[in-house]
């Protein structure tokens, strides 16, 4: 499909229209919080949280290497515990920002402070229970003893509610009330104390485990060489797994044939618009983010559109990105999965437009899933990379000239055209 026809088709995309949030920001989550608080207070006794089903864990990063680590449990919704775990199913069910916040505030975090080291053989007590929850392939029933009352202070104003979290309490003990089911590939990685964490991650990915499962196992200190195993803060583990699997996938297309012609894909979700341009050539990747005034990452209208960008060449990166953080690795993973599936390589430019409708941070999972699912739709094609950019310009929130000043890939096209003209 030619790009002009492709743009007309996008404008008629009813699914994208349904996903477009209302212009007036919604703070319905504030009404939900009162019900959450009441539910927790009714379910918690003086010294224990009974009948809890935990689908996942959380490891904090504050005060590292002595961190807060614990289990997350949707008290009162045990029969739907798996729904509360972040994953691609949130995208498949078309979660709104309110839906994400409701599921996050619906999880109670019962945690202890501990050192991230010396956890290789921690299979008993609180850390042992936490690890069993992390490596199980379904939510696990636990009983958690508390040494403090729950902090369920949800008294926030509408202007403050950008990233609400569930109640918190200091845990004294935790006990399994059922035998968790651990998949055989996970058992294999646990039993091999000489296996580097990177190899174990790629092994699990090749066995059909998604990155969401792998980063939870990594967080619990269950991967890597025995003496080097340690708890990994959840935020760090998410990026570590995206990066590690991404590097593995990039190696698979290193010598692949390039795509035949420029292809443009589009997706829109949670107030974020994504344009993904694949062009003939060796692997290169760049993410350019356009953060609109009034969006969560650019709340001051007087600042105008804020741009951020990071890139890598054929050999990849050797350092952490400077401007786009975890979104870079999440977007890159989605692109590489598609290229590996096709057995091709490409020079790739991803432009993310964070619109004012993105009024609260939901996490990089929405970047990963938006890019992954963009390839399910039809693509538009162009004669050249430069031609694709020129036709794309009217769809973007910035001019092509400004994009070229920020994007190395777009600037490279301009340089090549100028040299050819001379």
UniProtKB/TrEMBL annotation:
<keyword id="KW-0227">DNA damage</keyword>
<dbReference type="Pfam" id="PF04895">
    <property type="entry name" value="Nre_C"/>
</dbReference>
<dbReference type="Pfam" id="PF04894">
    <property type="entry name" value="Nre_N"/>
</dbReference>
<keyword id="KW-0234">DNA repair</keyword>
<dbReference type="InterPro" id="IPR006979">
    <property type="entry name" value="Nre_C"/>
</dbReference>
<comment type="function">
    <text>Involved in DNA damage repair.</text>
</comment>
<feature type="domain" description="Archaeal Nre C-terminal">
    <location>
        <begin position="312"/>
        <end position="420"/>
    </location>
</feature>
<dbReference type="GO" id="GO:0006281">
    <property type="term" value="P:DNA repair"/>
</dbReference>
<comment type="similarity">
    <text>Belongs to the Nre family.</text>
</comment>
<dbReference type="InterPro" id="IPR006978">
    <property type="entry name" value="Nre_N"/>
</dbReference>
<dbReference type="InterPro" id="IPR033167">
    <property type="entry name" value="Nre"/>
</dbReference>
<feature type="region of interest" description="Disordered">
    <location>
        <begin position="161"/>
        <end position="183"/>
    </location>
</feature>
<feature type="domain" description="Archaeal Nre N-terminal">
    <location>
        <begin position="21"/>
        <end position="298"/>
    </location>
</feature>
<protein>
    <recommendedName>
        <fullName>DNA repair protein</fullName>
    </recommendedName>
</protein>
<dbReference type="InterPro" id="IPR053546">
    <property type="entry name" value="Nre_DNA_repair"/>
</dbReference>
